[in-house]
Amino acid sequence: MGIRITLDRLLVERGMGVGEFAQRVGITPANVAVLKNGRAKAVRFSTLDAMCRVLECQPGDLIRYEEDRDGSRTEPMWTNDE
Fold this sequence. Notes:
Number of helices: 5
Strand order of the largest sheet: 1-2
CATH class: Mainly Alpha
Shape: globular
Helix content: 40-55%
Radius of gyration: 14 Å
Number of domains: 1
CATH superfamily: lambda repressor-like DNA-binding domains
Order of helices and strands: EHHHHHE
C-alpha cells in the first residue's frame, strides 16, 4: 500500500510517549503500534481528528503517499463509472 503513517516522527517532536498519546486519543497502545508499524488498513476520521487535535497537526502531517516498491498501484474500491 502506498499510504504511510508518519506518527513516530510527530511523537518524537512532541516529546510524547505511546501510552500518553493512546490515552489522549482514546485508542489502545496496541492500535498505536499498528499505526506506527504500517499494518493499519484504515483509520476512522474521528480517530484522525483526535490524533490531529492531540498532536496539534494537520492530517497531511500524519499521512503521506509513497509508490509501492515494485511500482504497482493499488486498485480503487470504486470508480466514477458506476
